[in-house]
Amino acid sequence: MLKLKERFMTDNNGRRIGVFIGISSYRRIIRNLEELESIRAFDEAKLSKDKPIPIKQAIKEIERGR
């Protein structure tokens, strides 16, 4: 589990409206989110009905579309 030492920013009524975290915590959060996005994309691709194609063919199709 990711441990955070966050500090909250509040408005004049004491309601939390923002959060401050250290840069290293921020970077870890971003890395974790990117990894989760990759996992989600992989899972979606596995469930897809699309027929897989070789990577070289995929690259050619992408470059043709530019």
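(the above was protein one; protein two follows)
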Amino acid sequence: MKRKVLALIMVAVMLMASFAGCSNKGGETENTGTGSAGTDSQAEATSAPEKTEHLIITYLYMAAAPADLLKVQDAVNAITVPAINVEVEFKPLGIGDSFTNYSLWISSGETVDLMMLAFQDIKNYVNSGQIEELDAYISEEATPTLYSLMQEFPIATRVADKIYGLSPVGVNYGDKPGIIIRKDYFEETGYEVKDIYAMDELTTVFAAIKEKHPECYPLSALGSAITAGNSQFGMYYGGNAPGGNINAGYLMEADSTTIVNLFETEEYKNFLNQMAQWYQAGYIVPDAATTDTSNNELLQTGKVAAYAMSQKPEQFASDYGFKVTGMATGAGRIGAFYGATNWMVPITSSNPAAAIKFMDYLYSDSNLSNLILNGIEGTHYKVVDPDNNVIAFADGLDATNSPYYNLLGFWGDRRNEYTFSASATRQQHDAFTQECMNNKFKSYGFNFNSADVSNQILACQTVLDQYQKALETGSLGDKWEKTYNDMVSQLKNAGIDQVIAECQRQFDEFLAQ
């Protein structure tokens, strides 16, 4: 499990930041005085300093805790104590160990005020009663930054309409189906640059690339890209899985309120047929279903020309030794959002209100979030391009010897984060988010609690593990239909209809609110 988590994080490195701002909180004042008839009474004001609130906050790392973590902790407290009267104590923990340690800590009654949950399902902690509901601590008056951001972005993780987690503000939101493709190969085809391409237009481009570069496979379509609970269908056709898992059903259109079994739709069968045709035409790598080689490696080495990927701005800045562009097959959209990371308050917290007060300040002050993320300016990093928030290691340091370097940036508002390489501008990210927000699925804001059908979901995933990679990579050629029919039948036996019915029931309740 640890190796899978670490591999996932290395692919999806997150560096965090947040808006600048601060607030000051003074102590209470009590007036006392004495006087007598014929003389003026004078009240002497004395300030009673407010007790500093101490918080224990988990600090996740990949290989080892940074050597200068205590120095950064001291620098954090130099900001937070004067501003909000909160003192932070970081509790370092390897991310792999968090999968087991969190529950053990809570069960044993250990005091921890904030836990970063990374690549785990927060509903497991909700269903076991191990974390606090946060609604009572978040309001426009008490936490204005969090309250405002929650109106704009899906940072509040809800279960049964109650808030249990807070995710970092993303660099952007939503996604757009399509493929990432070598720009030079695309331009060689002479094909028209368009906003959206049909699937048969991809076929035309693939054919032209194969003719000019017979040694290259136009598309990777790897089975390893099909993660549990997902399907490559969405990368080409769009849609949304409102339950966060393909086994809980699918919404085919943004205005739809009916959750369907994706695997029984004509659209899915057309997708499988298209993949089979591309495979037979020699457009997909022969070992797509079984290879462990990544899409990035195949593209960089010249073995493939393209792979399916959401058309986010940062995707086009990757350094392959050549430029890439996108061929979108649908409009940007956003539906039910299940963040990979959440801040949660365990029931063993000594002060949940102070924990959320700290979070509110963290999301408002980019100096604080960048301090925790990147360390101390001049000591651990230097700013090389302030206009684009690009930094570099301080002189004499690099990723191998820096005393403060952590790839796990889960802190605050990512839109103003410092980064070690420029990818896309804030304006590009914001424009992408706005496009997707203009095409919201009815499932936006919905969070499915799968506890009552968890066994059926596991059984369905076992079926998909057996059939999905061979089908969705096209590797079965024109003999795919029998395997497809077997998969659909076994999904029925595993209980996919019950899972979808439960998701629909909760979705109907969500829509009625």
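Reviewer note on protein two: The two ends are 38 Å apart (CA to CA).
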